[in-house]
Protein 1
Amino acid sequence: PRAFSLEGNGLAASGPTEETVKTLVEEGATIGANSTIIGNNVIGAYSMIGAGSVVTKSVPPYALYYGVPAKFRGWVCKCGIKLTDIKDEIICKRCASLYVTKSNLLKRIK
């Protein structure tokens, strides 16, 4: 993507420069249409970002974030459905994947 230059004299170069910040999108992450991801963040594996969201901080794996600014709204399974009945152990109702919660993170066991 390109933006106007800071000097206001046209479009800025579109290639990476020494000022470019990186954003890492891990395997299986889903980013909804028209979302904005602020640079220098990580979008965790199999996480989901709702359409039109503005992500201002890193998103942990399997997390569901949406809104302006995007906030944590729950956990999602690798198969794509929102996990409910959040306890220490969670079993997906669709694919039977097993997850555990630890230190405010979700980890897939099988």
Protein 2
Amino acid sequence: SHLPTVVNAVVTNVPGPAGEVYLAGMPVDCQIPMVPVFHKAALAIGVNSIGNHFSFGFFGCGEAVKQEHMHYLVKGLNRAYSELDAAAQAEPPAARSAAPTRTRAKRGRG
């Protein structure tokens, strides 16, 4: 019998070490996150990091997510990263004139 999908997506982030990592004397450039698609779930997304490098993994249930549609996730991630990178590279807006300050009215007693 076919059971319905209960969870659309599971997303996990596993932050790694901030410094360099070595394996057999060689630096490790990235980790590939492996997130299992558990029973009654459609999609699992994993994010790992080493230093300033991030790796993403997308895993889908073949019955719930068609393989030919998984590329939309990667395409969207690449586009979002490009937008974020462009925003980070942009010059900050010119300093605005000092904003007016609010003063609180004094309350009298009695």
